Amino acid sequence: MECLATISKHIKLGKPVEQAVADTCIGEPQCKEYIDTIAYFAKLYTGGEEMPMADFLVAFSKQYGESALLGEEFMRMVTHYDFRLQGTVLPCFRVALVATQLSASKVVDKVSKLLVKGDFDRLKNKCSNALKEVELLLHDGWKIVQKAGHLEERKKLGVFGRYCIRLVLFLCQKQKAGRESKPWMNMKEITDQFAAEMLCPPGSSSSSKDAPGKEAPASQVEFHDLLSANEAEIALLQHKHLKVGEHYQNAKYHGATIFKLFEHVPLVGSANVQEVPLGDDLKEWRHTKKPTPALLPPEVAEKHLGHTSTALQDSILLHQTQISLHKAFITSPVNAKAIGFVSNPPGVCSLKAFAEGALVLKPYGTLCQAKDQEKAKFLVGNFVISPPKIVSEFEKLDEKSVLIPFWYVKATQDEDLVTMELTKKTVQGIELPVYVNCKAVQPGDLLLCAHESLLKKQAKSSSVKRPADGKADPKPKKRS
């Protein structure tokens, strides 16, 4: 950051970037080997010639009171990494990555260790939409910081720095590696906290470890009116492990019972309030993260009981439909003397002559809930039917193999080769998708259906415009 500050100072004096880099190298900085990368980062991502975000990074780094380096590997990565996003190179997010690396509590050989290449790869591969959202959030947040005249420069840059760190660690799923103990659930919660801190920056020491140093400055210590405080309030100040609303246990007198300072609510009955003398007995109460047992309201439980649960009813309906499908499938089945299975590629053919409409192939398979019925091609009731594993090589047949001719009917784009048509037929009281031969077939004929593109072509060519008199237009003459 010292190099970034020096380069920024020279550029603001009107020097070109190359001269600024050369003058900075006179001091033999530790990052001399990759100072060109630092200059490139400053030129591209810190907000133009005035470099306001460079000033932010320099000021924010001083809040930690540490002299750790970012390291050549990280600096080259944050400067040149391609996140493969159209329309943005994520300047604000890259600055946030640097701010996050500066906050690293782990330092090896004077180099901060927090974000690594795997984090960058994960962001690129799995968080592209979130990256764009965070870039906008940081961009808008920086505008708010620049307009916040009611705050001291150090305070508002500290608030923005924490905003950067929280967003980056949340996206990278590394909140536990940060200096804060509070986990953030989503970006909205982080942004709301940023807005709250911009209105009123934290004025007291908290659970956050982001703040530098072991103790908060005197100006940040929370005020307490001890002259008018009662004994209970003073006891809470003396026993800092006790907080109103938190859960505690006293194994010596109450075993595993959990109290909420100091009230225990049983599953049935009234609350048990435990009065504890203000004194050393308070030390016996240990904070616990265990939640108190809670009773599910009977009216809620009633909706989810087995005999009333809609989820269970859906499961029963699925199994009933599966049984009905099996009964329909074994009704008048097509045997191996009527059709034959083909390999290379897998398919099915006729082994005897069938008149038009005489050959009906019914499906069978596993039923499951349809996520989108409009997109599902094969439906039985409200459920999607999935085929057994298709056997493409006969030598791989085993005792678990199941051959269903329906699933071996393949699609063709040649209209002359189409022999089967997908339609619906009610069998044993259940409506099924079935293939029916749309023309007479002879032994050895492949059973093929029309490809989706062929169906669209046929539908388009068969559409007939009718004039006002209601008579169909004459068929167009074929071109010679």
What's the topology here?
Elements: H1 2-12, H2 17-25, H3 35-45, H4 52-62, H5 72-80, H6 91-102, E1 107-108, E2 111-112, H7 117-126, H8 128-147, H9 153-171, H10 187-199, H11 231-238, E3 247-249, H12 251-254, E4 259-260, E5 263-264, E6 272-273, E7 286-287, H13 298-304, H14 310-329, E8 339-342, E9 347-350, E10 360-361, E11 366-369, E12 379-380, E13 383-386, E14 410-412, E15 420-427, E16 430-437, E17 448-450, H15 452-462
Parallel strand pairs: 14-17
Antiparallel strand pairs: 1-2, 3-4, 3-7, 5-6, 8-9, 10-16, 11-13, 12-13, 15-16
Task: Show unreliable segments.
Answer: 204-229, 476-480
Radius of gyration: 36 Å
- Overall body shape: flat
Q: What is the overall pLDDT average?
A: 81
Structural class: alpha+beta
- What is the total domain count? 2
Estimate the strand proportion: 5-15%
Number of strands: 17
Give the N-to-C terminal Cα separation: 80 Å
Spatial order of strands in the largest sheet: 4-3-7
Largest sheet: 3 strands, antiparallel
Instruction: Kindly state the percentage of residues in helix.
Output: 25-40%
Tally of helical runs: 15
